[in-house]
UniProtKB/TrEMBL annotation:
It holds the Pfam family FMN_red. It comes from the Bacteria. One of its GO terms (cellular component) is cytosol. Residues 4-147 form the NADPH-dependent FMN reductase-like domain. This is NAD(P)H-dependent oxidoreductase. SUPFAM superfamilies: Flavoproteins. The lineage of its organism: Bacteria, Pseudomonadati, Pseudomonadota, Betaproteobacteria, Burkholderiales. One of its GO terms (molecular function) is FMN binding. Coiled coil: none annotated.
């Protein structure tokens, strides 16, 4: 099937491992799956008082979430949770009342961290928020990329076995998306 998947990269820093992982996914995606970054770093913190004249970045982000078939998150763990900007992005697209764009939206979480646990706690926090907002989060296979620096050949490409693991994950996500596709 064909699917247009938004990619939310949880880290804003230039040399982010989350970004490097996201970039490596393009060549691993199954035929028909297109991955496109959906930026979130410019979203003002959610404040219902602003809804009367919603900030342009909110509108851009909401239009993005609405237009994509699914959303893939590549996130680092921050303090046993997720970066605040990612939580804010989810909040923004869940409002105003009656216009929660996450309901029924397929999603996938890829977590990574410098340490051995691979962002497990951050991943759980993100899945809790996504599930709570109505997204259908792919439960399996789970993606915890620990000791992330070792998953790349120095400044070069991702190592082969991680590539093959993620290729399989994306194939599963393709099937997951097709279950919920409204086409
Ligand atoms: C504010 C902050 C909090 C962090 N908290 C955790 C944490 O709770 N657990 C962990 O394993 N790593 C933690 N880290 C390390 C990052 O998860 C790790 O360096 C990650 O690979 C950074 O992702 P990036 O390269 O995409 O920016 C933290 C990093 C920052 C900046």
């Amino acid at each position: 099937m064909t699917s247009n998947v938004a990619v939310i990269i949880g880290s804003l820093r230039q040399a982010s491992y989350s970004r490097r992982i996201a970039q490596a996914l393009h060549e691993l995606a199954p035929a028909g799956m297109t991955l496109t970054e959906l930026p979130h770093g410019d979203l003002p913190i959610y404040n219902g008082d602003l809804e009367a004249n919603a900030p342009q970045p909110w509108e851009r982000f909401r239009t993005g979430v609405q237009g994509f078939d699914a959303v893939l998150f590549v996130v680092p763990e921050y303090n046993r949770s997720i970066p605040g900007g990612v939580k804010n992005a989810i909040d923004v697209a869940s409002k105003p009342n009656g216009k929660n764009l996450w309901v029924g939206k397929p999603s996938l979480v890829m977590a990574q961290s410098a340490g051995p646990l691979g962002g497990l706690a951050g991943s759980f926090a993100l899945k809790q928020t996504l599930t709570g907002s109505g997204s259908v989060v792919m439960p399996h296979p789970e993606v915890y990329l620990g000791r992330v620096a070792t998953l790349f050949d120095s400044d070069g490409p991702m190592v082969a076995d991680t590539k093959e693991f993620l290729r399989g994950v994306l194939a599963n996500f393709d099937t997951w998306i097709s279950r919920f596709a409204s086409r």
